[in-house]
Amino acid sequence: MKRLWLLVVVVSLSSLTFAADEPKESKATDRVQAASDVLNEIQSAPDSGIPEEILSRAECVAVVPSMLKGGFIVGAKYGRGVASCRTAKGWSTPAFFTVTGGSFGFQIGGQAVDLVMLIMNNDGMQHLLSSQFSLGADASVAAGPVGRHAEGDTDWKMRAQVLTYSRARGVFAGATLNGAVMKQDKDSTREFYGHMVTFKAALTGAVEPPAPANPFLSTLAKWAQVAAK
């Protein structure tokens, strides 16, 4: 009887230990999945989405799922997102950021929107790696063209460091986003990684992506490969 009781105790303790070791879902993890869903939905839409020429040349991709569009008081937090950059090993592990302030030039109102930002060149990437910069001041920003192929006379090829897009109520279009400040979301970073990870370490490939990063990174890899064909 004592042996049976001891076995029950051992099995119970083992179950508790296993449960404690299991990864817990978090808001940061949910945001990574939501960013993946946004990209899949946008790029799967027929005759819409980000042009292949642009996506194939983007150095980094940043997504803010369900950004709150209301008030636009400078300094008020209204968006949290994730970003990833190209590295020699593929797309980098996600870096978490917030977007605050600024003026938004597409369907201004109270509804939530999905925001996508493409960093198009090394100058824009260096601003992103600094972990805090102002769109339109530190980095030039422009509304990105929409459609399967970009027009030859658009600014994205040489001038714009960041191209921005917005989707609201099923409508996807280029959007202006001037004066907004992007900076590292330290709370989400610690929540996702269990410790502090710098923007530069995450976006340059110095940190191996954990399993919860896979949905976003695999989606980026899929659509970048489609765009490169």
Distance between the termini: 69 Å
Q: Which word captures the global form?
A: globular
Count of alpha and pi helical runs: 7
Q: Using only CA atoms, what is the Rg?
A: 20 Å
SSE pattern:
HHHEEEEEEHEEEEEEHHH
Strand content: 25-35%
Structural class comes to: alpha+beta
Largest β sheet strand count, sense and barrel closure = 10 strands, mixed
Question: How many runs of DSSP E, i.e. beta strands?
Answer: 12
Overall tally of domains? 1
Determine the mean pLDDT. Answer: 78
Low-confidence stretches: 1-24, 71-76
State the helicity in percent bands.
Answer: 25-40%
Could you characterize the architecture of this molecule?
- The protein has 229 residues and is an alpha+beta fold.
- It has one domain (26-228).
- Helix content is 34%, strand content 27%.
- It is built from seven helices and twelve strands.
- The strands form two sheets. Strands 1, 2, 3, 4, 6, 7, 8, 9, 10 and 12 form a ten-stranded mixed β-sheet that branches. Strands 5-11 form a two-stranded antiparallel ribbon.
Structure characteristics:
globular; disordered N terminus; alpha+beta; 229 residues; 7 helices; single chain
Write the layout of secondary structure elements.
Blueprint: H1 2-21, H2 27-44, H3 52-55, E1 60-68, E2 77-87, E3 90-91, E4 95-100, E5 103-104, E6 112-119, H4 122-129, E7 132-134, E8 141-143, E9 162-168, E10 171-174, E11 177-178, E12 181-184, H5 186-193, H6 199-203, H7 214-228
Parallel strand pairs: 8-9
Antiparallel strand pairs: 1-2, 1-6, 2-3, 2-4, 4-12, 5-11, 6-9, 7-12, 9-10
